[in-house]
Amino acid sequence: MRRTRDPVAALGGSAEIGLVRAPGRVNLIGDHTDYNDGLVLPLAIDRECIAAWRPRDDGRVCVRSLDVDAAVTVSADGTDDPGAVEPSWGRLVAAIVRALAERGRSPAGFDVALTSTVPLGSGLSSSAAFEVAIALAAIRAADGFALDRLELARACRDAEQLATGVPCGLMDQLASLSGQRDHALLIDCRSLSIQPVPLPAVVSTLVVHSGVARTLASSAYADRRAACEAAAARLGVPALRDARPDDVAGDRRARHVVTENARVVDAVAALRAGDLEKLGAVLLASHASLRDDFEVSTRELDLLVGLLVEEGAIGARLTGAGFGGCVVGLFDAAGVDDARERTTVRYREATGLEPSAFVVQAVDGAGDA
After folding, report:
1. N or C: which end of the chain has fewer CB within 10 A?
2. Counting beta carbons within 10 angstroms of the beta carbon of residue 105, is it exposed (0 to 12), middle (13 to 18) or buried (19 or more)?
3. pLDDT band at residue 215, thresholds of 50, 70 and 90?
């Protein structure tokens, strides 16, 4: 039988099928600040997870990934243990169903077929896009059940923590749900307020995948978070959001968080003023802090940032948690295509790795497709 990556066709194309979408995100600046009650500046991007859904009447949830041609089935009441589900990506399905059941969703069964253009292991929130798409399908399939955007983001965050054991923050899910076309999002991870920040029309956002997959569960992510929590406890503050520069001068991990929050503020001010030179300097300072103080960069990410700058980037930095994945660079829109080609050629020659590079647009957040 011929395989298809059309989710609607995969479910038979019947009239009762609904369709939802959830974008990935790229973070312009503000990494490892979200779980410290800090500030972040992501944008939802035109790489997304598309999920077709239809109800079923047997109290089961069946999710089929068209990208890996595999499916998982769990109970719609949330009682299945996510840790026991195979294949491993199905643990997120079970965890999402459980998180929604805990918030009052009825055990209404449904089928899902989905596909995603968010690269896996890239630091572009492929998992959050997957979570939000499944959660939206689950909500649509349960008549009379609804969650506001913030509580839905929390449900997806809780599900990811349960399924993976990674103590992730809320930025990725909020960005996927709250995106605004042609804008970045200034998110205060304490108040959870969101301010759209216009992006200059003359600037293009280039993302380059290093060819090295990032897996948070096997990285030092949890260790970094624990170090931040220990520093806050030592200082007697609720979170490093409350620390002052003088408080953390001798602690590299904490110093990154405090200075990164300040850089987010500076980046937003530069964007609003149209000061691209200042914006570029802030992005480069962020990468240096992630590399030297927080130690989450890699040789490949450092090389890519350097190459992007040599090829004319306004500024560049690793994006996401680090330990592999992607870098982001801002370019004059007229020169971005040539810079993309030259950067990937030079990187391939230097490392033997196969990068992928693509310009992304800021898009609206998740919803019906």
Report:
1. N
2. buried
3. low
